Amino acid sequence: MYYKNFSKVYDKFMQHCDYDQWANLIKDKIKESGVEGKKLLDLGCGTGETLLRLKDDFDCSGLDLSADMLTIANKKLKNKNVKLFLGDMREFSTGETYDIIVSLFDTVNHLTSLEDLDDLMNSIYSNLNPGGIYIFDVINREFMDKMFPGGVYYDDRKDMTIIWEHFRDEDLDIVEAVYFVKNRAGHYEKLKELYEKRIFEEFEIRKIIEKNNLNLLSIGKNDRIAGERFFYMVKK
């Protein structure tokens, strides 16, 4: 099951994330695009924190591959008029189409091949209304090298210790994650999970966007909210 263990610690892991800043950045980009319509899908919505911040301005829905993440999101968004769907971003259909689709926190880097990226863009085209936009961010090789000096990311917090070991296998970045999480009894529970990521080059992304009849509106670099990352905005 996808991210079964990570879902247990995700919000604790992301407790220093400035979700308000992320939401404001997305709102600015949506305004910049000039898109008409307010129907928004958060593709890879996780535990729903971004949706909580967008729901008052847009008609929001969320989709994620992890049933465990969605269970947490559903509790946060109960009675808030936000629809949640279980699905794979590479090939999804909610039975609805959208004016705006977003994938944040380098969700796209969790795809592991160019074929996956192609499938994603094909699904984006199918699920966007004419004139609709897709906004997503990706990280690059430099980001990964900075995050894993010597191949290890280590974070010791008051109630959780995180150890991520990183290595490369051909085109993939593999992360073996271990979390030691303090429970209510004061004991530490050990959780393990394996993640795969791929670094996509700009020319690869451009080519696949064009192949799927989408128009690249902009690429913007941002190094203020969560390390250096690149935001792409495409339009149908």
UniProtKB/TrEMBL annotation:
UniProt record, GO biological process: methylation
Pfam families in UniProt: Methyltransf_25
Keywords assigned: Methyltransferase, Transferase
MF GO annotations: methyltransferase activity
InterPro entries: Methyltransf_25, SAM-dependent_MTases_sf
Residues annotated as domain Methyltransferase: 41-132
PANTHER family listed in its UniProt record: TRANS-ACONITATE 2-METHYLTRANSFERASE (PTHR43861:SF1), TRANS-ACONITATE 2-METHYLTRANSFERASE-RELATED (PTHR43861)
The protein's name in its UniProt record: Methyltransferase domain-containing protein
Organism: Cetobacterium somerae ATCC BAA-474
